[in-house]
Specification:
By secondary structure, the protein is an alpha/beta fold. The protein has 17 helices and 15 strands. Among the domains are: 119 residues, Rossmann fold (3-Layer(aba) Sandwich); 130 residues, no CATH class.
């Protein structure tokens, strides 16, 4: 096991709240992290049917086994427990009594909001960021191997070929999790939709087109996309709106949290194949965007991140808004910097400064090379130097 960046954050909030809720995709390392953080706490998984039945049929009897609290894994399977946990922590609000984990964010968050408001903090654990990934002894060293392999821990910890592990992951996800979250009769159609979404990563979201390509209605496409989001497979990056005098494109961009999963869904089976793939730029963009999300979420913070595009065509891949400065980030997977890559950043900087006098806008280019440079006020940094794109001071999401 590698040490996760979220560990000290998890311990800090467990010392302040009676309940801590940890969500994230399956196989992101939630159970491993919780067991390492709280080695003296009883651990109970609600995945086995007999344990789940006990918790659902006799919640008081189930919780009576753990008067000092416990780690309750996959708690979305028995969301009714939360009301009884509320009663327990109201009577004894000792910090860190219960650590709850779950893989389905939507259902779990809704139940937590209703039952544990003010009693828990919600944290998110995604697959390791690049900085965390480097803690594995056999971590990939070059850009395209990093993108191709993705970041799910078991691939790197046990040396499993990514195409083999991800094939099993997708099959399990579609067959089990999708059935639990959504009544999808046509699993083949959902699988097609999932692959079409992978082909749209790093691009503006068009649900009507996605639905038409998958042979489903736009409302169905919207519902299915919400399942992918609630399962922490993908996320939407909203548009930046600070300059109201400009006509901005309002569609969000679609991004996946794991580039290796995108490669698998697109049929990319080697890092060499990715290097010449027509979507390599979009995959690189979605990887950097997901790295920014990870760096924020693994500090217990929410990223104030957007994309920017005007109707005229001027666009910036990522806008990271902070109190003191806003970073404008463009992504290029090429290894050699082309001067034309800097022009959109400088134009966007000038346009945004005109609409927000006194606020600092910092242009940054992230590219596939290995040399850090500075040209025309643009900070040009290699793909593996993303640390400065990390958190801005915001509070975590409390419930």
């Amino acid at each position: 096991m590698i040490q996760r960046d979220l560990l000290p954050i998890l311990l800090r909030w467990a010392a302040a709240y009676p309940v801590v809720t940890l969500t994230g995709p399956r196989q992101s390392g939630k159970t491993t992290l919780c067991k390492a953080a709280f080695p003296g706490k009883p651990y109970v998984s609600l995945e086995p049917l007999e344990t789940r039945a006990f918790a659902l049929e006799d919640p008081r009897g189930f919780l009576a086994q753990y008067p000092d609290g416990a780690i309750l894994d996959e708690v979305q399977h028995a969301a009714g427990l939360l009301s009884y946990i509320q009663d327990m922590v109201d009577n004894d609000p000792a910090p860190g009594r219960f650590i709850l984990t779950g893989s389905q964010h939507f259902g779990l968050s809704e139940a937590v909001s209703q039952s544990l408001a003010g009693r828990t903090v919600i944290l998110h654990l995604l697959p390791p960021s690049l900085g965390e990934l480097r803690r594995f002894p056999a971590a990939p060293k070059d850009l395209f191997s990093t993108l191709f392999m993705g970041a799910y821990p078991r691939i790197h910890d046990q040396g499993i070929p990514p195409e083999r592990w991800l094939a099993d992951y997708v099959a399990t996800y579609v067959q089990r999790d999708v059935r639990q979250v959504l009544n999808v009769g046509d699993l083949l159609g959902f699988n097609t939709f999932l692959r079409l979404c992978a082909g749209s990563t790093g691009q503006e979201l068009n649900l009507s087109r996605l639905g038409a390509d998958a042979g489903i209605s736009q409302p169905t496409a919207k519902a299915w996309l919400s399942v992918l989001e609630s399962s922490f497979l993908c996320f939407r990056l909203g548009p930046w709106h600070t300059n109201h005098r400009k006509r901005l494109v309002k569609a969000p961009k679609l991004h996946f949290y794991d580039s290796g999963l995108v490669c698998y869904l697109l049929g990319i089976r080697t890092a060499e194949q990715l290097e010449t793939h027509p979507l390599r730029g979009s995959i690189f963009e979605t990887w950097v965007a997901s790295e920014v999300m990870k760096m924020h979420l693994h500090q217990g913070l929410e990223a104030s991140a957007f994309h920017y595009r005007e109707v005229s065509g001027l666009e910036v891949d990522l806008v990271i808004h902070g109190l003191d400065r806003t970073r404008l980030v463009e992504f290029k997977s090429g290894r050699t910097v082309d001067g034309s890559w800097l022009k959109p950043l400088m134009e966007a900087k000038a346009a945004l400064e005109a609409g927000a006098p006194g606020h600092e806008f910092e242009p940054i280019l992230v590219y596939g090379g290995d040399q850090r440079q500075r040209r025309n006020e643009v900070d040009i940094r290699p793909w593996d130097s993303l640390e400065d794109l990390g958190p801005t001071p915001n509070r975590p999401q409390e419930r």
